[in-house]
Each structure stands twice: as structure tokens, then as C-alpha cells.
Amino acid sequence: MDSNWREKRLYPILGVFTIFCFLYLNFKDDLSFTFPVITWNLPHMSFVGVNHTRFVTHLQEEVYVNGWNSYWLMEESVRGPSSRSRVSKMLKKGSQMGLTVCRTWAFSDGPGSADLQIRPGVFNERVFKALDYVLVEARRHRIRLILSLVNNLNAYGGKAQYVSWAEEAGINVSSSTDSFFSDPTIKGYYKSYVKAIVTRKNSYTGILYSEEPSIFAWELMNEPRCESISSAPVLQDWITEMAAFVKSLDQKHLVTVGLEGFYGSKLAMNYGTNPGDWAASLGSDFITNSAIKDIDFASVHAYPHSWIPEADLEAKVKYLSNWADAHISDSENVLKKPVLFTEVGAPLTINTEGLYDRDILLKIVYDKIYESAKEREAGSGVLIWQLLVEGVEEYSDEFSFVAWKYPSTYKLILEQSSRLQNMSSQGQMS
Ligand SMILES: *[C@@H]1O[C@H](CO)[C@@H](O)[C@H](O)[C@H]1NC(C)=O
Ligand SMILES: *[C@@H]1O[C@H](CO)[C@@H](O)[C@H](O)[C@H]1NC(C)=O
Ligand SMILES: *[C@@H]1O[C@H](CO)[C@@H](O)[C@H](O)[C@H]1NC(C)=O
């Protein structure tokens, strides 16, 4: 690897300069002007690829993921030095817990002062630098990021903002937000946005995002859903087109959809593991959407408390267990791609035996992944929804927590990290 060679040759020569850069990154308060942080300062990481149903490094070493979500990293980074230290702390703590992948928002669409994309194709450079900072800090802590590119939901603008932009521009779009997936103008907006992100040159490191190994994957959308089931073919075409578009700009990174994993077809073998009939009416389908050629791995979410709220804990456990089995099995046998459970969330409820529901449910999916990994099958990891550090409670929801404040959960996370690291080949993070 040429970058490897360069690092080895230049490390000794530039030692002093490296230390300077390190200090700069740690203690510089005002990052408003651009100073090129020399890339030799950053740890070497390899890109993650896919071999059959497994994630692998370029040396074909298997990678199993214990990871987490902190959607708020860019937004928090915008605010200033003390906020940035919270972002750094989250990544550092994640690394100390043995977590290797963090999923976060690389979008914020709207006219607000902390929004990344103010108008279609127009960016707030200050916010972009905040995202640059997140990437640098991830790299420093050897964390890989899954960067999600737009929201299905209205938070941070989402597809509804894109539709409004088109309306404001006088485009005759239908009032349904499904036009996000079909209207040529809106698809053009999304593509120009994606292009700006993927081809971005990090203002601190000078590294193109497309060349940055601390990015694990691009996620096309957080939880795509349609308003009308008749839009299902439109969503399928959108995923096909957009995945190919990302690949045309970046051949080094993996691409995933961002699905919740619902089965859209009653003919699917595992249709019965859906949380309800409603799940089949959202226009998405785990099998057909994930089967698209340029989609490298499948993604699934799991929220038994939201999806089957009336069920008791025992029923939730059973549901989650079947849900995990179904997706691992379909990924192994039908899709022949790895699968990541990119959001698994449960509330802090304590049951009669003094145990957290969250621990019980999380352990179900952790165990499924471990068992699958032992067989070298498609179940490749879990990302908890979601972790916070002290001082960022405003990003909280009923499934968010500061991990080290809950010793039982903390222990569970550490155990999963340790047994997956054991499964992964030595060079997982090299
Ligand atoms: C994929 O993994 C298999 C089994 O470990 C290995 O034999 C094969 O060479 C790998 N494929 C590539 C393209 O490296
Ligand atoms: C907008 O599109 C609809 C459906 O395609 C069409 O019926 C309508 O006439 C269009 N409106 C204008 C102002 O072009
Ligand atoms: C790691 O693997 C070794 C041998 O394969 C095993 O003895 C040990 O118990 C494992 N540790 C964990 C934490 O799973």
C-alpha cells in the first residue's frame, strides 16, 4: 500500500511536526480557518469490503461489528470548542468500549444556521467543517462511520424538505412526499447533495471523503418508507439509481439502503416475522431492496417496544428473536450479503426481577450475531440506538442513554465487543 509506505518513511522525519499537529487537533479552539492537518498523523486504517456474506479487510480478514448510533455528532460539532470535546469524548469512549463502527447523520437539510444544506446544492461551510471534524476524530479513535445521507422523517429536513424546495422552485410535484423518489428535479437535488458529500475534501486532513478509510459505508436514506404502497416500484428504482450513482463517485466504500427490514411481499418466506400487516404497506421490501446489485450489505432495525407496544416482554423477546433469525437467514441464503442490525433500541424499563428490558432485548440480538459469526454466516453486527455523553441530553429519546451510567448494559456491550474481537481476525482495525 503506497500510503503505508509513505507513513513508514515519513514518520521519523516528521515526528515533531506530527506532535504539533496532534496538539493542534486537541487544543485548537477556533477551527474556523483551515489548516491542513498532515495525514501522517492519523492512524492507518484499511477499507472494509465484502466477501460473500462477510465483511473483510483488504487482507481478507473477517470483520464483525459491535457498534452504536450517535446521530448528533455533526450538529454538536458545529457549536464550538466545548461541544467538540463532547463529540471527541463519545468517539473515544466508544473506542474504549471496543466499539468499532458508529452510525451518524451526514445530513441536515433546511434554512437553519446549523443546517448543512441550506438550499439544494448550497452548503454552509461552517457545518461542513463540523462534519470534517467528526471524520478526523473518528479516524483518530479508529472508529469507522456509517454516514446516512438523508432522512425519511422530517427531523433535519428529510425528504419533505426536498419536496418543499422543488415546490418553491415552481416544479409541479405531487403533494405526496413519494415524489422524493420519482421527481427528476428532486432526484437531481439528492444527487448533487450526495456528490458534494462524497467528493468533499476534508478541510483538516486534505483527504477526500471518498478516500477516507474511517468511513465504513454510505447509507442512502434513514428508514425509507413510502406514503403509498403503489410507490414500491418507484422506491426500488430510486435505490437502484442512487446506489449506482454513489458507486460511480466512490468505488472504495460500501453502500447500504438504511432499511428497517420489513417484508413487503406476502410471498416472502419470513413475511410472518413482520411486526404487523402495516409493515408490508410502506413500499419497502427487505429482500428486493437489499438484492440490488450496488447494495453491498443489508440493514435492519429492531424496535419491539415501538412496533408491538401491546405485547408483554416475553412476546417481545420471541418477536425479536424470530426477526433476527429471519434476517440473518435471508441474508445468508437469499441475498448472500452480510447484514448489519444498524439500529436496535429498547427503553430503560425495569421489570419485576430488577432487570432492564433493554439488556434482555439487546442480548437477544447480540447472541444471534455471535452465533452467526461463529458459523461465519451473514449476521455481522449490531449498532445500538443510541449512545450519549453527559451534556448532550437534548438529543435524547426514549432509547438513548449514557452507557457507563448503566453498569449492566455497559458490561453487556463490553462482553459483546470482546467476543466479536475474538472472532474477528487479528488485523480487524489495521
Ligand atoms: C473470500 O474468502 C474465501 C474464504 O475465506 C477465500 O478463499 C477467497 O479467496 C476470498 N475471496 C477473495 C476475492 O479474496
Ligand atoms: C401538474 O401535474 C398534474 C399531474 O401530472 C397535472 O394534472 C397538472 O395539470 C399539472 N399542473 C400544472 C400547473 O402544470
Ligand atoms: C476467545 O477465544 C478463545 C479461543 O478461541 C477462547 O478460549 C476464549 O474464551 C474466547 N474469549 C471470549 C471473550 O470469547
UniProtKB/TrEMBL annotation:
Specify whether Cytoplasm is a keyword of the entry: no
Q: Where in the numbering of this chain does the Glycoside hydrolase family domain appear? A: 46-386
Membrane-spanning residues: 9-27
Location(s) in or outside the cell: Secreted
Substrates-to-products reaction catalysed = Random hydrolysis of (1->4)-beta-D-mannosidic linkages in mannans, galactomannans and glucomannans
Q: Which InterPro entries match?
A: GH, Glyco_hydro_5, MAN-like
Keyword Secreted, does the record have it?
A: yes
Its family remark reads: Belongs to the glycosyl hydrolase 5 (cellulase A) family.
- By what name is this protein known? mannan endo-1,4-beta-mannosidase
Q: From what organism does this protein derive?
A: Penstemon smallii
The lineage, from the top, is: Eukaryota, Viridiplantae, Streptophyta, Embryophyta, Tracheophyta
